């Protein structure tokens, strides 16, 4: 009598044997070594976007406040330098620079966000051109200084070091470029341009102190705004 019962091959796994047909674990490669997990890509930092937008609005608000006219050259004393220094000190070089750049672009495309409601590229041919250009450079440079000071020094030294850095940036960047703008656009000799610029210096240095005190308060309250914890 012939036995018609099918003979199961030794290589064929049993239906109930789940281990025989199981493929390699997703965490292992063909050689059995664990494969490296793909690192998640960083998207747009929502906090950075929000901070850039907020400080751009602060720069606009500082320009909207009526300035105090000084001399006959049409360069008023405004709160813009205070806002620019505060932006760099709080946000650092990249985000601070982006906030100032966005502010400048808004004005260049026609929005009345510069002092006395001015706008457009024609401001680059006026007496304030050097100061406007200096805003971007100043925010980046003082932002770099803030980044170094906050990451490498004790908190007790922050105010003194940031004040010194702000004074240097104000004089070497804002006022030097401002004087150059007066010389180029108004055809003033160096001595006359410096004389026209000097009345703004004491007020700008005082605004630096205010910006530093405010920025240090922000960093002490929110330590991850500029100095973020490392992963």
Walk me through what this model shows.
There is one protein chain. By secondary structure, the protein is mainly α. The chain has one domain: Arp2/3 complex 21 kDa subunit ARPC3, CATH 1.10.1760.20. The protein is built from six helices and two strands. A two-stranded antiparallel ribbon has the order 1-2. The chain is globular. The termini are far apart. Keywords: Cell membrane, Membrane, Transmembrane, Transmembrane helix, Transport. It is found in: Cell membrane.
Keywords:
Arp2/3 complex 21 kDa subunit ARPC3, 2 strands, 231 residues
Question: What topology emerges from the helices and strands here?
Answer:
Layout: H1 46-64, E1 68-70, E2 75-77, H2 80-108, H3 129-152, H4 158-186, H5 190-197, H6 201-221
Antiparallel strand pairs: 1-2
